[in-house]
Amino acid sequence: MDLSDRWPLPDAPDLRDRLLAAYAGPTRGYHDTEHLTEVLDRLDELTAAGTPYDPAPVRLAAWFHDAVYDGDRDDEERSAAWAEDALRGLVGDRVVAEVARLVRLTGTHRPDDDDPHGCALSDADLAILAAPPERYAAYTAAVRREYAHLDDAAFRTGRAQVLGALGGKVHLFHTPYARERWEAAARANLERELGELGGPGR
After folding, report:
1. Averaged in consecutive runs of 10 residues, what is the pLDDT profile of the chain (202 residues)?
2. What is the value of pTM for the model shown?
3. Given Cys at both, which of 42, 43, 61, 163 links 102, Cβ 3.0 to 4.6 Å?
4. What range does the domain containing 45 cover?
């Protein structure tokens, strides 16, 4: 899939290409260029619905939010650090700082209600949870491939903990549009997957 025309900094094609190469890395399962495309699509959907946010930092944060992904706990921190280093001089310091903040926020998906940038990015990133059954099954299979180094028991335990933490949020989504359109389907998918896992977090 060609994402070249969706890169928000046309004067920095080399950075775009480095990011695309990272998302296309051989160890990627779910967190690949398809995921990046879907996050950008959901941001477009939120924009079309009138969701207020500044696209400049949010779309850059979407590009960087999984720039580093190998399953470690500091993936978001390393992705944010890459953004801080790579964007300096290409955009203003405030945008650099905001992009890095937003990337770090995707580690928890718990933006404040008065954080429109964080709400939009978090909702776009988690929209996969509301996917139709076939796409959701492909998503969970891809996540499993990313953790192929774990045995089934360890994976089920870890995955159930992640889903349980998400399910424990008062709302999975933070924008009115996403809550109305995606919340119910996402809750149903989480409940079904947790039941299949049968692990902690149930």
Report:
1. 88 97 94 97 98 97 95 88 98 98 96 97 98 96 93 95 92 97 98 83 41
2. 0.94
3. 61
4. 8-197
